[in-house]
Design brief:
disordered N terminus, disordered C terminus, 616 residues, 10 strands, alpha/beta, six-stranded parallel sheet
Amino acid sequence: MFSVNVSGKDVPRGFGRGKDNRQAAKSQDPERGSEIPSPEAALTWVQRYRQAGDLKAALHLCRQLTRAHPHLFAAQALLGSLYLQMGDPRQALTPLQLALHLRGDWVPAWQDLGDAWMQLGNPEEAARAYEQGLAFAPGDGQLLFRLGSCWLTLGKLAQAIEVLQQAAAAQPPQVYALAALGNALMLDGQAGEAESWFRQALALAPQEGRILVNLGHCLHLQDRLEEAADCLQRAILLLPRDAQPHNNLGTILQEQNRLEAAIEAYRRSLQLAPHWPEIHYNLGTALLTLGRYEEGWREYEWRLQRQGATYPRFLSPLWTGSPLSHQTLLICAEQGLGDTLQFVRYLPLLAEAHPQAQICLRCQGSLVELFRGCFPLPQVQVISETDPLPSFDCHLPLLSLPQRLGTTLETIPARIPYLVYPVHAGGPQIPLSLSWREDWPELSQERMKVGLVWASGRRAHPELNRVQRLKSCPLDLLLQHLHGPSIQWVSLQVGEDLRPLGSLLEQHQVLELGSRFRSFVDTAAAVAQLDLVISVDTAVAHLAGAMGKPVWVLLPFAADWRWLLHREDSPWYPGVMRLFRQDTPGDWVGVLRRVQVALEERLRGIPSQDRACSSP
């Protein structure tokens, strides 16, 4: 018989009531010296301690019970559940597995086992446990919700949506299943459908701040900024110690060009989560947009610690900016092609400042040939991301160079051009007239030759795809508002399926070249022959600016940090770049009307504003 004394000062064998919340258990204590006649009664006392919040006593009693009755599956399952509740999922695994070995149809134990694996960061094993539980309880809403969350964690969106739809249909409705389905649909780019599920979840739990945060993000993805901000303001009241709603509100304020308010929101967020990389990164971009480069570059360094950051891990240290002597420094391109083209300007400066060092730039393959020709310095080596790495002493991401070199608005390296075409790669200079490929159509020699790029690169993630959409100008709108019989239009667009646009390009007599480009050497060859490039915020805009070619950049209302705020010129490309910004979000028509006026002025010979400089 399993006996235990649970009252009085001298409680044998450690079966005490613990330190906190003992009154509920005390009111039901049997008289001193009474015995619990069976394991079932002991299980009842474990549950009483647990309900009273005395987890330590419950755990101690349950451990004694499993030692006395190791084949009692209910005791093993309860012990695992207690470990899980006390934040020790690793200790929970063995008793839960023992319980399920004794009784494989015990659904709550399968759920707890799955939860333990999830807390241990193993969603694959968690999914197996939840699936085992569902074999015995196919319509269990909690198990379906948890399994769907596993698939979401593993990036299996289609499976997650299918399972979470079943969870959402379970009765009674599971609030978090509805919200999880919203998250899955949002990640799948179905923001409108996701919104309806978030609202259903909020109808069941109107005070659940996390769902408000998710709904706010969903509305943000749909460009409904005011509604999103309202959701986040409500979430902030419900989650006073949560940094995320402040951070998310900051991103909305930043997109409204309310930079000071955004910075304030980010700083409040950092007070609650001082080491969260995403917030530091967002703060950095807001500061950089305002030209506050010293603090902005410092905060921007946190990008390397963001979730999903792809910068490689090396054993050698990051370069701190100290003298390099005879060392080798590896510089790694880390973001888009435009970023690499903009910041490669630092290579000659590094070579000049550290004449005894070897500098190796590792960049995108499509840029290697161009850079090798433009930087034929003996101490500079350019390799692609797929080439074997040479030995090196230290390394640095390319976009960390401004911070290491203390770049301010006044000290931006702005020697234009810094990319020169035709490239010669150490050999004889190729005459410009011979750089045009034989299989390319001829350009008009009588008309002004203007290159066009209307679309930014497509991204898979909904947030990045939204950025691409906001940066891109529809081609039909562009051609509708830009015209002139004295202009030879040339498409430099790459990365798009141009087949559906073929008739539109032909109708407006646009010479299509972009699909023929094999690398940026070809792009540079085309740009070199043009009089002007008109481009949205893409790599071609940076290439034209770096080559010293007049370039007009079409920018969304809330432009990227590199274009600063309200300026019509760029200190990164002085004298050659002109910025045309949306006055209101999404208003490309206003932008294109101003571009058309500028084109007409240029054709009439009115002095161009390309060389105008505005104040910061």
